[in-house]
Amino acid sequence: MQIPIFKQLKLLPKTLKNGLSANAFKVDVTNPSSNQEMAAYAYSLFNRLDILIICATLDPKFDNEHADQFIHGFVDFPLELWQRALEINITGTYLSTQSCIPYMLKNQYGVLVLISSIYGLVGPDQRIYQQKDSITQSKPPFYPVTKSAILGLVKYLAAFYAGQPIRANALSPGGVYNGQSEEFIRQYSSRSIIGRLAKEDEMNGALLFLASPASDYMTGANLVVDVGWMTW
Fold first, then answer.
1. Type and span of the H or E element at 211
2. Domain boundaries, the chain
3. Which residues contact 188 (CB under 8 A, 6 or more apart)?
4. Given this structure, which CATH class describes domain 49-225?
5. Dihedral sign from CA coordinates of 172, 122, 162, 34
6. pLDDT tens across 111-151, in order?
């Protein structure tokens, strides 16, 4: 008999400052069995599974360490990287939701929050990725394509589970600070109405809203938190 993934890892709960605890374990989102183990483990902890927030994504990093990974244009973009991104960003999200929904239906309650992006709504402004005295980079085609697909999946799930206690919504953040170069930060910020990238914790309120009963009257929606990126 195969030992479940979560038992192999033997991960212990982590106590947080507020007295709550958090459990963690590795999941290969592209693997159906790994996703099923994840859902089963979560259900075993609490005898219910209420909320799934899925954000596993192959997301290009524009820093010195990864500078040579996204130097391709559209015509010469590697097929293997395109296929890998679709496998993680779309299929991984599909498999994770597919594995968790049966437990939500069992307890007659479930909230799905799928993380998209402003680039699921508009095309990337490639000018902000061009940096002086550096390798020419561009936002790869797989990112807006897969983030658009997330919005389609959200609408599908909301409509498919109409009349059942399952809600599905998307959160589409704008740029979040993550150690980018000063030049990138300056170029991105120049397009932002507030004039900066988001801080790491500035999606928390929107995410809690979508995951909580405060958004009970929302399903199939997309909450955009983009510091006015698409207002111009």
1. helix 204-211
2. 49-225
3. 128, 175, 180, 197
4. alpha beta
5. negative
6. 999 999 999 999 998 888 877 766 667 788 999 999 999 99
